[in-house]
């Protein structure tokens, strides 16, 4: 989650700075609507870029460490397998589904994070602006 948030916030600030510093762009990036749109774009992009890492993390957390012979007797030798780490799980995901396997579920992540980050950053920027105007941070 932290990587996703870092990408989303960095992208949001980079887009706003680009708009502010480019005289050819006639767009007020400090309105609530524009911050919501930029936030949605940053949120969706961050979610899309980090989807492969989420796939690997989810697979690591949910992996089975038993051989799964189904007899219910898990105390005999050989029933335990060493859990895979990040590299090993990445290789397994690739072997099972190729490059496309790393993007499974991207639509759900993008359509969850885009509006969530849009709302969060719009609220954050509104509170920050109100704080600056009212001297809350001095």
How would you sum up this structure in a few lines?
This protein is mostly helical and 138 residues long.
Quantity of strands, as a count: 0
- Based on Cα principal axes, name the global outline: elongated
SSE series: HHHH
Strand content: under 5%
Structural class based on helices, strands and sheet pairing: mainly alpha
Q: Overall mean pLDDT score?
A: 90
Number of helices: 4
Distance between the termini: 32 Å
What does this structure look like?
The chain is an all-alpha fold and 138 residues long. The chain contains four helices and no strands. The chain has helices at residues 2-21, 32-62, 86-97, 106-134. Helix 1 (2-21) runs antiparallel to helix 2 (32-62), helix 2 (32-62) crosses helix 3 and helix 2 crosses helix 4. The model has no long low-confidence stretch (mean pLDDT 90).
Q: Could you name the key traits of this structure?
A:
single chain; about 140 residues; mainly alpha; 4 helices
